[in-house]
Design goal:
With about 280 residues, the chain is α/β, with parallel strands linked by helices. It has 11 helices and 6 strands. The protein folds into 2 domains: about 160 residues, Rossmann fold, CATH 3.40.50.300; about 70 residues, Conserved Hypothetical Protein Ylqf, Chain: A, domain 2 (Orthogonal Bundle), CATH 1.10.1580. Strand 5 and strand 6 form a beta hairpin. The longest helix is centred in the last third of the chain and has 15 residues. The radius of gyration is 20 Å and the shape is elongated.
């Protein structure tokens, strides 16, 4: 599956990040806890440079807890401050601001030595589409300051949001990169909804997801769809089996595999299949 998606507004977003990076004190990079590697835009590192940074693994409430812990240790080992949060549940969000203050402690002390006190700390929020940036900001600000939605590409412009705890947040639209050198990355972004379904072959995408779940979370398929004896089936055969188990049978006894594919993707994204992490630490190293 060849996945490419880089709308024109994403070029503008990269320029927006580059133009504003000097005016912020810290960058908060939001990753999807289910795909920490795949949801990390490699172009962001070059734009951020040596700017202070905090990596936030969002949606940790629907990710595999043990895998999330491994990822936090991975980032720590590589000298990157990271923490897991759930914007939907509000879990650990207050700790994000505390962590940012801790990371910026030297800069804050330098300001105080120059008589600068109570200066708002400016943070830039970056991430690929659909990682929950807007929900993250709204929870921090305790209001609906940023637009939210379950489709990628909701936020389209630069938004500064002031919050009561002495921070100003710069929201940026979700941005992918022009080419996925590793198509596995493209597929996993598509699994989570970071790439619009309208440009995808949804059935082929579902087939790949079924194969991945079979290898890593087979019980999710058994418990949700009552699927058994699928160890040696191909992706399309598994999709047909899922459709048969759910009763998606059309005239002539054929299986409505498109409907089965949409159901699978919707239920994976809603965590109906359980807490699942697709990117594993060390998988590609």
């Amino acid at each position: 599956m060849n996945i490419q998606w880089f709308p024109g507004h994403m070029t503008k977003t990269m320029r927006l990040i580059e133009e504003n990076i000097k005016s912020v004190d810290i960058v908060v990079e939001i990753l999807d806890a289910r795909i920490p590697r795949s949801s990390k835009n490699p172009q962001i590192d070059a734009l951020i440079g040596d700017k202070k940074r905090l990596v936030v693994l969002n949606k940790s409430d629907i990710a595999d807890r043990l895998e999330t812990e491994k990822w936090l240790k991975y980032f720590e080992k590589n000298g990157i401050s990271a923490m897991a949060v759930s914007s939907v549940q509000g879990k650990n969000l207050n700790s994000v601001l505390e962590k940012c203050r801790d990371i910026l402690s030297d800069k804050i002390e330098a300001w105080k030595s120059r008589g600068i006190v109570n200066r708002s700390l400016k943070m830039m929020i970056v991430g690929v589409p659909n990682v929950g940036k807007s929900s993250f900001i709204n929870k921090l600000a305790n209001k609906k300051s940023a637009k939210t939605g379950d489709k990628p590409g909701i936020t389209r412009g630069k938004q500064w949001v002031r919050i009561a705890s002495g921070f100003e947040l710069l929201d940026t639209p979700g941005v992918l990169w022009p080419k996925f050198d590793d198509q596995t990355v493209g597929m996993r972004l598509a699994f989570t909804g970071a790439v619009k379904d309208e440009i995808m072959d949804v059935e082929e995408l579902a087939m790949h997801l079924l194969e991945l779940l079979r290898e890593n979370y087979p019980n999710s398929l058994t418990e949700r769809y009552k699927m058994t004896d699928f160890e040696n089936l191909g992706g399309y055969e598994m999709l047909e089996l899922l459709g048969r188990k759910r009763g998606f049978v059309v005239s002539g006894g054929e299986i409505d595999t498109l409907r089965a594919a949409n159901v699978l993707l919707d239920e994976f994204r809603a965590a109906t299949l359980g807490k699942i992490t697709l990117d594993k630490v060390g998988e590609q190293e």
